[in-house]
Amino acid sequence: MRYLFTLIFAFWPLVTGAQDWEDQRFFPGGDEARTLRILSSTDTSFFAPIIERFQLEYPAWSVQYLVTTTSEIDQVFRAAPDAYDIVISSAMDLQLKLVNDGFALELVGMDHPDWAQWRQRLFAFTSEPATIVVNSAAFQGKPIPRTRQEMINALRQQPDLFRGKIGTYDVRQSGLGYLFATQDARASETYWRLMEVMGSLDARLYCCSGQMIDDVASGRLLVAYNVLGSYAAVRRKEDTRFEIILPSDFPTTMMRTGFVSRKTLHPVAAENFIRQMIRIQGAGQDSPISPLPPLGPSPEETNPSVISLEPALLTYLDQLKRRTFIKEWMSAVIQ
Q1: The CATH classification of domain 129-253+317-333, taken from the options 3.40.1180.10, 3.90.930.12, 3.40.50.10490, 3.40.190.10
Q2: Any idea which architecture 2-126+255-304 has in CATH?
Q3: Per-residue pLDDT tens over the stretch 162-201
Q4: According to the 3-state scheme, what is the secondary structure of the chain?
Q5: Lowest mean pLDDT among 11-15, 130-134, 258-262
Q6: Where in the chain is the domain with CATH 3.40.190.10?
């Protein structure tokens, strides 16, 4: 068996193709012929407990877990939908578009609320807010901004302190960043004023939340906008060099989603994985299995800030609207 796994890892580049993955990990099971291939934007350390719990119930199955950005997931999967069994992403709009374009398998009889699924094909399993992360030392002795307008005021009052030390997603490259930005712009004009102030202070642009958190903690950045709250919360437990702000003016919360490829070679196992994932994330925070937050209750009841799984998500994926939005964003941020 050890020799078999050695061969698997030796030929790993051939198995996964020429794609430059952010991360990749093979979770061996009891039968090397049974392997689920998961394409995901979620960091391996966050998703590994879900995979390991699945393998406790289905020990014969191995899992090949491949991580890339939300935008690349859309491109990679469209190019080879038969190469992957399950797709996991935080970019709700791109996921919904893939489902509407016929790439997802229908899973009948799923015990999942209507607001957390789309056409029995796309299934939400977490609720995760967009946050502002600030360096603790930079705000020592000063009130920490709690709204976007307060952040605008803080940046304007000390431009020399914050110049070159503000970060946010590059929405041209990040699918999640684009989703957060378009939702913020729909909610309030304050978003555009904040972008203009950040642009005037030479904002740095990033692909991923993890890199922004690292740079805020080290002091390379003093403020990072629209950082994924779940990643920040886990890191904050061991690193007190930064603070997490949940904007009180108009919070934005996305739902991480997954679906089974319509061209999967293992439809039963893939469906079992989705069911197991939903059960795990619906268990609540009292006994968490994964660092990912649970799905939570209905947004209509307690959290209206949650982005809805609905056709309106596709609005800004229209090519003309996307070009217009990015042009306006570049005018504000890249000055």
Answers
A1: 3.40.190.10
A2: 3-Layer(aba) Sandwich (3.40)
A3: 999 999 999 999 999 999 999 999 999 999 999 999 999 9
A4: CHHHHHHHHHCHHHHHCCCCCCEEEEECCCCCCCEEEEEECCCHHHHHHHHHHHHHHCCCCEEEEEECCHHHHHHHHHHCHHHCCEEEECCHHHHHHHHHCCCECCCCCCCCCHHHEECCCEEECCCEEEEEEEECHHHCCCCCCCCHHHHHHHHHHCHHHHCCCEEEECCCCCHHHHHHHHHHHHHCCHHHHHHHHHHHCCCEEECCHHHHHHHHHHCCCCEEEEEEHHHHHHHHCCCCCEEEECCCCCCCEECCEEEEECCCCCHHHHHHHHHHHHHHHCCCCCCCCCCCCCCCCCCCCCCCCECCCCHHHHHHHCHHHHHHHHHHHHHHHCC
A5: 11-15
A6: 2-126+255-304, 129-253+317-333
